[in-house]
Please model this.
Amino acid sequence: MNKNNLKILLALLIVVLPMFNPLFSNNIDSIPKLNDQNLKFYQINSCNISFGKFLLVNYENDSLEYQFQHKSDIPCFGKVFYVEPTEEKYIVLISLNPMVSILLQAAVWLLLISIIKRNKNAYKKTTFVEMFFLVILLMTHLLGEKEFYLMNNENYTTALQIDNYFLISYFLIFSFLVYYIVEICSSRLGNLLYYFPFIFLFQGTFIGTNLNIFTIILFFIGFKNIKNKNHIFYNTSFLLLLLVTLTKDYSFYSYFDIDKLRGFSMSSNSFMAMIFWSLTILFIVNGLNYLISEIENFNYQKLISNFLLSGFLLVIVGILSTFNELLNKFSLLFFGLNKSSSESLLSVAGNSWRGVSPSAEMIGEFYALILLITFLLYKTKSISYKKISYLYIVFVVYGLFRSNNATAIISLSVLIFLFLVNSNIKTKTFRRIIYLSFICVALITSYFILRQNSYSNMSHVLSIEALNAIGVDEKLIFEEDFITIFNNENSENISTSLNIIGKFLINDNKIESVPNIFSILSVLALLINRSEKWGIFFAKYDPNLLDFTFGYGGLNLINYEFDNSINTPGLVLPHSSILSLLVFFGLTGLVIFIFITTNKLYKNKNNTLINFPIVFLLINFIKSDSLLYLPMFILFITLFNLLDKKTITK
Amino acid sequence: MEIIEKICGEKKGNFNLSDVGNNPNFIFENDPNFPTLTLFFEDGKVINVNSWIECANYVNGGWTNNLLPKTDYEQVFSILLISFAISIYIFKKIKKYVNEQK
Model:
């Protein structure tokens, strides 16, 4: 058998075999089939029957639903924890343990990474001190998010004692993890980047933790680049921003349910968590930069093949996961998903299907981006695709339409149209006429979308939605009596950001017929169906001047969520990556981001191959939270770094 | 069964644990000859049992009298990981030595 196939087989066995765990079980020779009569047998034999054994007896039973019990004892791993009957089915709880899960999942993913070819280049060796530093950083994370780990580990304790075997175990696990990451990735640094599209499938989040293997890998790589002289200004500025964030006064919250953002968002804004997550961003950006700089001749053929294959696999795995409950649950473990994959091929709330991805919006953007890059490579680099690629493209198109991401579809079409006009029509005047016609069509379409609203309504809709979220008297909102609302003595529930909007609304000195910035934003929000979501954002976003200037800190959504009295069910994200950047890094960070991005895009305006995909992502980021997900963050930073990569070859 | 007898004592009488398990309305009768035992559950719950079958039923469900030492699995796990690390280190040293000899 081929060595790589053997590795894949071994990876599968690492997931399957522990489910037959016979250790620490009472001797039970035979187990009965699960039914109402034998239910008690399974309930009293908690952690005595391996899940594999259970499955062999009950595989014909189609009234079973599986759920993972993340925080069982170590010997209980892979066994039936409990069976809970409901009216229609039995819920079978399968025991897992975070420590064992980390080891097994890491083994699977590192085995798969080891399939990637080694480079001939000799890379700087990672020293013991560097590895130790990484382990300490991971321990910082473990200690910094106390509530999260208490919920996921029965014996969690932060006491720094010699007999705290919980911490010792984690220290050893992290040491193994870092050691093997260094061992396996060090010799593949020049090739790793070509395989990053697969992280949309192998999302790499460790079950029962707030850690992701790709974060740790990029942490290690970023470490090599941190002293790079070309980035010393950016890195120092970032660290200064972190220093400001840490030293300013902020409300502490011990727990925030990060849900589908697990592995790339802080669950507590403790001092240690703030340091860990801010450094995470710094190291990821540096890591990706280093990976790109290590590639001499960038091979786009290789990259697009992996883009197409990962898009195809995403759709296939998503579809297969809907057919089989067991496959659905085990994909969570094997791929390290942030959220269980869709259980049905039907769309959520009648509009979107996300497959294995945590977000339909993000995956729609990914599919559209694959199609855009495929098209651009074909046009700019004359890349020829293999026959199988066309099959992949069909699946990617299917995935895009099922994700129902209208913005992604429209922006993809517009950019392809612009590219075709730009490259095929040589006469400048004729090109301008086409652009003007296009703008006219867009304006007329917008008019037809918004025509039932008056301008006054449209410019107030954002504030009205925000005031609704706060729970202001409906009569006052209906009458649009903003003077009473914003000047009311009981207006302490109104956030600082909404107060600023209010000042614009009731300002007597405004210039007639000149819309203010929030009126324009309100009309835009209505046009792209974001008035409700952004209304909630302004209702919740309650920073003081320092928070607004420098932000709450990288990946800190906690102060945004809790520094106000608005109760929203579940995780309510800003619904705009740009607004998320404002939350994280404040106006300073946002202005720097916009400046660097536009500057780099302008400088490389002739590199349409990368320029267009970045513009595509930026357009979509206006209304989506995609940048809050690790795969999309990595994709964006990679493309951004590829912009001025001089040595681009076919 | 071994654990049950360790905690509840020797089985005296014709009891069948599955009778209790299959009957949600089963009522435990006090056995005046059975000395009341206090059992503990891992989440800190405490219960007094007054018959052998009642005791056996609870022990079967994971309750203990706290006399059995609770295994610190994390300690065992740490030792296993350290042993694994040492084995790898030794294996690498041997491999290096063999390669040098060649």
Remarks:
- The first strand of chain A starts at residue 64 and ends at 69.
- The beta strands of chain A are 64-69, 80-85, 90-95, 298-299, 648-649.
